[in-house]
Amino acid sequence: MTKKESCTINFNLPEIYEIQSYIEEIEKDPLPYEEKNFDTRIGVIDFIEFQVISQIETLLLKTIQPAQLILLKYRAEKVIAELEEIDINLFQKLQANIRTGGYKGKEFKTLINEYIDCNLDDNKHQEEPGYDNLDVFINGLSPFQAMPEQTKDLEPEMVYYQKTSARVVFELVEKAHFMKEDVFFDLGAGLGQAAILVNLLAGITVKGVEFEPAYCNFARDCAAGLNLPNVTFINVDARKADYSEGTVFFMFTPFKGEIMEEVLEVLRKESLKRKIKIITYGPCTAQVALQSWLHSAFSKDDNIYKLDIFTSL
Ligand SMILES: C[S@@+](CC[C@H](N)C(=O)[O-])C[C@H]1O[C@@H](n2cnc3c(N)ncnc32)[C@H](O)[C@@H]1O
Predict the structure, then answer these.
(1) Residue ID of nearest Cα to ligand 1 atom 2
(2) In a mutational test of the pocket of ligand 1, which residue from 242, 255, 279 has the highest number of ligand atoms less than 8 Å from its CB?
(3) Which of 8-12, 27-31, 83-87, 177-181 has the lowest mean pLDDT?
(4) What is the spatial distance between Cα 157 and Cα 259, in angstroms, rounded to a whole number?
(5) Which helix (H) or strand (E) holds 176?
(6) 159 CA from centroid of ligand 1 (Å)
(7) Ligand 1 binding site (Cβ under 6 Å of any ligand atom)
(8) Cα–Cα distance, 139 to 145 (Å, whole number)
(9) Domain residue spans in the chain?
């Protein structure tokens, strides 16, 4: 084989026919184009990006006559752009409805069920902190997307930002049995998604406490962008926050060691004034479980990525 032949593909390659037939099939299928079929759309976009386009790009590296492949790539990208446009319009509409108070509590859950096939009523909890299509949908509801840069160094016992998956927040709201007068605090609120979601699902007042100013500003902008006046964020070290209104406190392991002990001591003092609940997720649960002033059904053999609810005695 000459050097030229070895880097030129034959245009009758079965791969090209296969790619072409994938694209034709997708172009003809009405399902991903129906607004409601969000799950299907995500699956199709992933398939085009990770199977079709990546296969075209591999073939493009091998050919010196790329016209047919370039055309197929253009068609594949066009389908993605059309499907993404449907999602952009969908989320603009849903954000506008949230702003006018259109989805509260049950209605919000019903809305999610309309777009995502995610068995929200199934009581099984997640065994690890993974994300799925429900997170993609909830991210879409956020009026801002680009994550801000961290501006402050964390102390060694502080834990970097990682969000609680949306599915876990749904489970939290199911298990917490909130009363309408409850005030929920997210300690180490990050970009504010968990706090905002609790407000949308339960309709109660929520407050996020976050050390990093850029995250706190982002969370405030999201709450303002969705017109959620009962969602506020406080840029303060959790050791120094004012918890006098709080009744339910959530911690997705925001800190550990001495910092956790100090925060728990502040919460213990609050518990002398009224009964409180502390909901934990992740490795911090084991440390919280050692507090003699708290009660829970926690067992040391439990998976650490199981929500635990502690009640003050
Ligand atoms: C694991 S993330 C949890 C994010 C959020 N609660 C959620 O569930 O999506 C931990 C967050 O705690 C914040 N953090 C760490 N130490 C803190 C402290 N002492 N006071 C307030 N926030 C803190 C970090 O900046 C980070 O955003």
Answers:
(1) 161
(2) 255
(3) 8-12
(4) 7
(5) helix 166-176
(6) 6
(7) 154, 158-159, 161-164, 186, 188-190, 193-194, 209-212, 215, 237-238, 252-255, 259
(8) 8
(9) 3-99, 115-312
pLDDT single digits (tens) 231-264? 999 999 999 999 999 999 999 999 999 999 999 9
The CATH number of 115-312 is which of 3.90.380.10, 3.30.9.10, 3.30.360.10, 3.40.50.150? 3.40.50.150
DSSP letter, residue 239: G
Nearest residue to 143 via CA among 201, 243, 221, 66: 221
> Residues 56-86: pLDDT tens digits?
999 998 877 788 899 999 999 999 999 999 9
Which two three-digit tokens encode residue 277?
């609940």
Identify which of 220, 202, 228 has the alpha carbon closest to the alpha carbon of residue 101: 228
- Residue from 121, 127, 132 nearest 43 by CA: 132
CA of 187 to the centre of ligand 1 (A): 6
